[in-house]
Specification:
about 140 residues, alpha/beta, Rossmann fold, disordered N terminus
Length: about 140
């Protein structure tokens, strides 16, 4: 997702971006704002830049009736954890540690992220420049 967003940003800055009237753009913004002690400064800067980019792009595209919003996922249950930690014990330990940090005491699913994006795209028609955390209340601590 970030690669596509980087291309949109690059084209937008270079004046090559072509946006149609009437639409919605949703972007993912890395992890939510909590648990910062586990993230490095680069991750934090990228997340802040993407959130700012969504707000600025929302203002820029508003006259063309294009809405822009950001979705900020928490820990999501995908196969990437097993790829990052081939040793199953390490992956299980990290998973349990993160479950303990999430107030809802579970990981989210990719389906839940998709539903949030669809909500912003089709139901939240009076919403632009917003960030929707889909993180089990992780960012609200």
């Amino acid at each position: 997702m970030c690669g596509g967003l980087a291309q949109v940003h690059s084209d937008f800055v270079k004046g090559k971006a072509r946006f149609h009237h009437f639409g919605h753009i949703s972007q993912m913004v890395s992890f939510s704002n909590n648990g910062l002690e586990n993230l490095n400064i680069v991750n934090l800067k990228i997340g802040a830049a993407l959130r700012s980019f969504a707000r600025v792009l929302a203002a820029e595209l508003l006259p063309r009736e294009i809405r822009v919003n950001a979705v900020t996922p928490g820990p999501i249950d995908t196969p990437i954890l097993g790829k990052m930690f081939p040793e199953k014990d390490a992956a299980a330990q990290l998973r349990e540690k993160m479950i303990g940090m999430v107030p809802m005491k579970r990981w989210g699913t990719s389906e839940e992220i998709a539903k949030a994006v669809l909500f912003l795209a089709f139901d939240a028609t009076f919403t632009t420049g917003a960030e929707l955390p889909v993180d089990g209340r992780w960012s609200q601590l």
